[in-house]
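Journal club prep — side note

Before the paper discussion, L.F. wants everyone to see what a predicted structure for a comparable chain looks like in token form. Sequence:
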Amino acid sequence: MRPAEGAGAVFWFRFTAPRAPVEADAEAAPPAPTPDAPPALRVLAAEDHPANRKLLALLFQSFGLDLALVENGRNAVDALRADRFDLVLMDAMMPVMDGVEAVRLIRAEEAAEGRPRTPIHMLTANVFEDDVARYRAAGADGVLGKPIQIGALQALLEQTAASAVPA
């Protein structure tokens, strides 16, 4: 019997492959910073979805950076009032306060208080031209698309590290 046109097909396969050897130091803790080493970047990420927060935590652990996670824009604004960060990654759509509103409020407070401008990049799947224009109009410095491209994230972190001002 032939399947109906456009119905498609499902294929299953199985193969055996040897496990890759685990290097002895791959499981070791990251090296402690030396006295001359610059401090790790401090990154604040506002993300409402628990799975995305977990992914961010795993990504940033591999980069050896100091990551603070919050669940919405209101918490991000509060965190920036209480502490200094080198970079903020802001989800666009969150409950309580969305990312665009949070960025506007952060920029207004920085200007009113004479605080240095913290780099803020939106972290969102909404990356159409009009979305990006709206984020930039609110005060965002850039946009990282979801799913996260590791190379783009690395480039942003390197750029941030190169321009970070010591606390």
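L.F.'s comment for the group: The helical segments are 50-63, 73-82, 99-113, 129-138, 150-163. Keep this in mind when we get to the figures.
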